[in-house]
Design goal:
- The chain is an all-beta fold and 72 residues long.
- The chain has no helices and six strands.
- The strands form two sheets. Strands 3-2-5-6 form a four-stranded antiparallel β-sheet, with no helix packed on it. Strands 1-4 form a two-stranded antiparallel ribbon.
- The chain is globular.
- The N and C termini lie far apart (35 Å).
Length: 72
């Protein structure tokens, strides 16, 4: 038996601001933020910040030169 919800929710979009910094707390400019499939959401500014929109649940990958990339 297959049960389907009576209503399907539209994907909820949220605006997020991300700050990328190194282990000493210094901002990392130019870090890339992308969806796991590779769609680029943007690059961090000189303060290491980027504001972008994402559908919930929001999974992203952050990469910066000289650092190991991470999924969040």
């Amino acid at each position: 038996m297959l049960l389907l919800p009576t209503t399907l929710r539209a994907q909820t979009q949220v605006s997020l601001t991300l700050t990328v910094d190194d282990p000493s707390g210094a901002p990392i400019a130019g870090a890339t933020v992308q969806k796991p499939a590779g769609h680029l959401l943007g690059r961090t500014n000189a303060e290491g910040r980027l504001t972008f929109t994402c559908e919930l649940p929001c999974r992203i990958r952050v990469d910066a030169e000289g650092f190991t990339g991470s999924f969040f």
